[in-house]
UniProtKB/TrEMBL annotation:
PANTHER family: MSF1/PX19 RELATED (PTHR11158). It comes from the Eukaryota. This is PRELI domain containing protein 3B. One of its GO terms (cellular component) is mitochondrial intermembrane space. It comes from Lingula anatina. InterPro entries: PRELI/MSF1_dom, Slowmo/Ups. The gene is LOC106170378. Residues 1-171 form the PRELI/MSF1 domain. Signal peptide: none annotated.
């Protein structure tokens, strides 16, 4: 078994990062997730948003490993998340469903506000990787561990990309609303002018 862990600080408030994390896929930076479906989403009695999603993702194994083990490039992952706005925590846990009999990857991500700066968010990430019953198990665990480093970096970049996208969307909506208000004001002015001229 290999245990991989990492910590990262985002230069954004918790609410912003959590919103982006929930909209993370699809994105052009981390393209290993090729499909995403929401199975269930609800707010429980404590006000916690609970979600269950299924993802189709690419393994990231070299071609020789796929041939050696006889596996598909695609993997299905079950992801459960809890967003607790009162306590400002988001916990996301995922586990592979495909080939679980010989490889299991259990990942946990925890998003919390930075204790000293409310405009920053801490992401703690951990994965337990176990390969068993196949040749070169330790080597395969090492490959998966290396993939986590690369994918974690891409995942953080993807969250930054989503945050930028959300900001652009907000600016475009503000601009469209402003233009709409200007058109309404012009129409009202023209209507008032026409009424006054008629009198």
């Amino acid at each position: 078994m290999k245990i991989w862990s990492s910590q990262h600080i985002f230069e954004h408030p918790w609410e912003t990062v959590v919103t982006a994390a929930q909209r993370k896929y699809p994105n052009p930076i981390n393209t290993n997730v090729t499909g995403l479906d929401v199975v269930n989403r609800h707010v429980d009695q404590q006000g916690v948003l609970q979600s269950h999603r299924l993802m189709r993702t690419k393994w990231g194994f070299p071609g020789w490993v796929i041939k050696l083990v006889g596996m598909s490039k695609d993997c299905f992952v079950s992801e459960h998340s809890k967003v607790d706005p009162a306590n400002k925590t988001m916990v996301l846990k995922s586990q592979n469903m495909t080939y679980h009999n010989f490889v299991s990857v259990d990942e946990t991500l925890v998003y919390t506000p930075h204790p000293e700066d409310k405009n920053k968010t801490i992401l703690k990430q951990e994965a337990a990787i176990t390969v068993h019953g196949v040749p070169l198990a330790g080597k395969l665990e090492g490959i998966l561990e290396g993939n986590f480093d690369s994918n974690a970096h891409k995942g953080r970049q993807a969250i930054e990309w989503v945050i930028s996208t959300i900001k652009v969307e907000a600016e475009e909506m503000t601009h469209a609303a402003k233009k709409g208000m200007e058109r309404m004001e012009q129409a009202m002015h023209m209507k008032n002018t026409a009424v006054q001229d008629a009198l």
